[in-house]
């Protein structure tokens, strides 16, 4: 794991590293060069993995919570020990700046550490009975084998945010990582194996075309849980497929986050929080702000300060320490950003800074103003380093504008008025609200949305509940 050449490129299947008939290339988005040819799994490998995840479930769920926790904690320690190589791999396969990549490794490891402890906190309860000879007990048991589909923008954290609670609960899991960035998942599988994870408990199946592979798991009655992070359109399709076998489902889908800047804001601090929220990972996160609303009298001052700050962002090679903005992940992502920009400018928006492709997949950090309703970037996730600035009149107007979307993942506001902070946060129709905080995500807190942004929560004590079933025992005494 000292270089990309030593990263496993085979499928991790039933406790073994296996070749496949086909492979597909993983490219470095910063250079366009092929890093490695990776195993391309299909229905055959999916059936093998389904058999393995089902057969390993009995043994894994019957291990004590302390045994599972010990293996998870060893996995956590190995992740920290390999922080630099994991971060380097992430930067190379999906273009995340190296400093951000290191932070993601620690964030990803945090889920493993947290759920190593939560494994020992799965408890039941006794319910009082109206009959003297009865004892009513409630216990929690693992839901069963899990199939997880993860995205490319957090190629380590999206693995552990799903796998750690599943494994802690006693479930076994098969992971289909994003085709753009499967190497981090394979590296984490290697560390799971080194930590003593039993064969079949965690498997990683890369696939260039996920549909034929995924269909096997959706049709298999033994797979009892589906967890997916990705677009709303795909999530809706998977939700429908899961209904045929009534699988449990967790969906973390698209977002369209507003950031509200109220008139009492400390502008310097508000600008820094907006920068942190909007431009990390080149704007390619589901909780990045997509719409920045500023109270009318602050517009000019805020726009000036935001523009100056954005112009200072350093674009470049993800492996360079000073880089803050790396490339977009692929050509499709770049074309979407360009399309949103062209649509906005055609409909009357103006550029404060940026707005152009520098080279290859690099897009300049951009600020737009005079943004109007009806523009694509106000309806769709841009998933790029483009910050549209709009205005609002008052608190009620701000809430109305922020909620004018079918999405409900994350929202943000900046105010020094504690009453306003509570009123607005409670009125926003979102699963996550950052108050004076552009980076609220942390392993011990719930992550997830409402409306078209998904179902269920990941993180904290809530995350492990997604992998547990409740069983009621009524015991009549002799």
Could you characterize what this model shows?
With 478 residues, this protein is of the alpha/beta class. The protein is built from 14 helices and 24 strands. Strands 14-17-18-13-12-20-21 form a 7-stranded mixed β-sheet, sandwiched between helices. Strands 9-8-7-10-11-23 form a 6-stranded mixed β-sheet, with helices on both faces. Strands 5-6-24 form a 3-stranded antiparallel β-sheet, with no helix packed on it. The model has no long low-confidence stretch (mean pLDDT 97).
Please provide a brief summary of the model.
The chain is α/β, with parallel strands linked by helices. The chain has helices at 43-62, 65-81, 83-94, 98-118, 157-169, 183-194, 210-219, 232-243, 267-279, 299-311, 331-346, 395-402, 418-427, 460-465, and strands at 11-13, 16-18, 22-27, 34-40, 125-127, 134-142, 146-149, 173-176, 202-204, 225-229, 248-252, 257-261, 289-295, 350-353, 357-359, 362-363, 366-369, 386-392, 407-408, 410-414, 432-435, 450-451, 454-455, 468-476.
Topology:
Elements: E1 11-13, E2 16-18, E3 22-27, E4 34-40, H1 43-62, H2 65-81, H3 83-94, H4 98-118, E5 125-127, E6 134-142, E7 146-149, H5 157-169, E8 173-176, H6 183-194, E9 202-204, H7 210-219, E10 225-229, H8 232-243, E11 248-252, E12 257-261, H9 267-279, E13 289-295, H10 299-311, H11 331-346, E14 350-353, E15 357-359, E16 362-363, E17 366-369, E18 386-392, H12 395-402, E19 407-408, E20 410-414, H13 418-427, E21 432-435, E22 450-451, E23 454-455, H14 460-465, E24 468-476
Parallel strand pairs: 7-8, 7-10, 8-9, 10-11, 12-13, 12-20, 13-18, 17-18, 20-21
Antiparallel strand pairs: 1-2, 3-4, 5-6, 6-24, 11-23, 14-17, 15-16, 19-22
Helix pairs in contact: 1-7, 2-4, 2-5, 2-6, 3-4, 4-5, 9-10
């Amino acid at each position: 794991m000292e270089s990309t050449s030593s990263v496993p490129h085979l499928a991790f299947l039933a406790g073994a590293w296996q070749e496949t008939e086909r492979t597909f290339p993983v490219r470095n988005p910063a250079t366009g060069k092929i890093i490695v040819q990776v195993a391309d799994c299909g229905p055959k490998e999916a059936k093998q993995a389904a058999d393995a995840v089902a057969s390993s479930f009995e043994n894994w769920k019957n291990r004590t919570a302390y045994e599972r926790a010990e293996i998870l904690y060893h996995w956590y320690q190995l992740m920290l020990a390999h922080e630099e190589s994991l971060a380097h791999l992430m930067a190379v396969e999906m273009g995340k700046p190296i400093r951000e990549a290191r932070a993601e490794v620690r964030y990803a490891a945090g889920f493993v550490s947290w759920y190593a402890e939560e494994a020992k906190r799965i408890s039941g309860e006794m319910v009082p009975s109206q009959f003297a000879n009865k004892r009513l007990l409630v216990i929690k048991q693992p839901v069963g084998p899990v199939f997880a589909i993860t995205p490319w923008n957090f190629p380590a954290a999206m693995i552990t945010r799903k796998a750690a609670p599943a494994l802690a609960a006693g479930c076994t899991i098969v992971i289909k990582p994003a085709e753009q960035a499967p190497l981090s998942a394979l590296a984490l599988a290697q560390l799971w194996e080194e930590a003593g994870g039993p064969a079949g408990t965690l498997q990683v199946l890369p696939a260039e075309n996920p549909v034929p592979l995924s269909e096997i798991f959706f049709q298999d009655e033994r797979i009892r849980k589906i967890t997916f992070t990705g677009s709303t359109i795909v999530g809706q399709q998977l939700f429908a497929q899961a209904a045929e076998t009534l699988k449990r489902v967790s969906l973390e889908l698209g977002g369209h986050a507003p950031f509200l800047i109220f008139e009492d804001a400390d502008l310097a601090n508000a600008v820094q929080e907006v920068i942190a929220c909007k431009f990390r990972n080149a704007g390619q996160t589901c909780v990045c702000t997509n719409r920045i609303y500023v109270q009318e009298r602050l517009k000019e001052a805020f726009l000036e300060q935001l523009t100056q700050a954005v112009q200072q962002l350093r674009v470049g090679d993800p492996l360079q320490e000073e880089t803050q903005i790396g490339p977009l992940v692929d050509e499709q992502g770049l074309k979407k950003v360009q399309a949103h920009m062209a649509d906005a400018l055609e409909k009357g928006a103006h550029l404060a800074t940026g707005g152009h492709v520098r080279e290859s997949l690099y897009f300049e950090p951009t600020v737009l103003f005079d943004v109007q309703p009806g523009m694509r970037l106000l309806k769709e996730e841009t998933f790029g380093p483009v910050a549209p600035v709009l205005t609002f009149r008052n608190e009620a107007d701000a809430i109305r504008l922020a909620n004018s979307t079918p999405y409900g993942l994350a929202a943000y506001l900046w105010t020094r008025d504690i009453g306003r902070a509570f009123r607005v946060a409670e009125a926003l129709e979102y699963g996550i609200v950052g108050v004076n905080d552009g980076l609220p995500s942390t392993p011990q807190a719930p992550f997830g949305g409402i409306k078209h942004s998904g179902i269920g929560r990941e993180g904290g004590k809530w995350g492990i509940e997604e992998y547990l079933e409740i069983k009621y025992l009524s015991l009549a005494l002799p």
